[in-house]
Design goal:
2 copies of one chain form a homodimer.
Chain A: E1 6-7, H1 8-15, H2 19-27, E2 35-37, E3 40-43, H3 46-59, H4 64-71, H5 78-108, H6 120-123
Antiparallel strand pairs in A: 1-3, 2-3
The structure holds a DNA duplex (30 and 30 nucleotides).
DNA sequence: CTGCGACTTGAAGCGCGGTTCAAGTCAAGG
DNA sequence: CCTTGACTTGAACCGCGCTTCAAGTCGCAG
């Protein structure tokens, strides 16, 4: 064994993702193995970082196809930069919304309203975001 | 027509949700019609508020089944309160993560790194959340 | 009474993000 | 050499959140 390359089981263990998910990501163009050891995929350690990024973005509501686009980007890809900027605005909005939701949940834990959902303080989470 | 009750088309238009989605939500116990006008569902206007709450929670990553649980909660439901408190922590973590991601995206829009994803500043989004 | 169109139903279908399965391949160790 | 066991493949399947479809039922206008 080379020592610098990791096999899929190792990557799965260290990334917390299932091996099946890694193969799935490969089909979708999100990652690729450096080579093969026989039939077996051999991954560079950097792949772990990339997977962390993928997990992060996916948790943030990005689709795998979007993530794949981002991963291919160079600094000269203008359209992609616009896409990233748009995503940034989207994420900002989500942060604001989630922050309100968090405050509502925090309140809910101590609220005395009977149908909890009727509490006006709880409902603040629902305030419409000003038109985008 | 009664004037206080809305039919499904009206609710769909005003909530921005498809009629099929409203029927789906009914099957899942998220909403219910006040009654029927012939076969047709007749909704109370408050349903619109409830739908706004549902959309908000769903966008925040809650499952419909979770939302249904929350919607049934009274102030004495201790287990549910714990669930809400747990969700609050979860949402807080998400907010933190998304905030980092937003900062990374903001940077990405002006970054000169070639594989954009290799930029160390970009990668800060990926910093592991301290063990939960 | 005759459309018409918006509603009703249950069942099937879809896109996403995977997991599971069956069958096969390979490297290392006894 | 032969077994073991982690890997390989493609294809089928899953849960979620809906949408679409086919077939039927209303209420209202003409």
């Amino acid at each position: 064994m080379d020592g610098t390359l990791l096999d899929i089981g190792e990557v799965a263990r260290r990334s917390g993702l299932a091996a099946s998910a890694l193969r799935f990501y490969e089909r979708k163009g999100l990652i690729q193995a450096e080579g093969r050891n026989g039939l077996r995929r051999a991954y560079r350690p950097e792949t772990l970082e990339r997977l962390a990024l993928i997990s992060c973005a996916r948790d943030a509501g990005f689709r795998l196809s979007e993530i794949a686009d981002f991963l291919l980007a160079g600094p000269s890809d203008t359209r992609l930069r616009e896409h990233l900027a748009a995503k940034e605005r989207e994420v900002s909005e989500r942060v604001a919304q989630l922050t309100r939701l968090r405050d509502s949940l925090r309140h809910a834990a101590v609220c005395e309203h009977d149908p909890l959902v009727e509490c006006p303080e709880f409902k603040q989470a629902v305030r419409r975001v000003p038109q985008g």
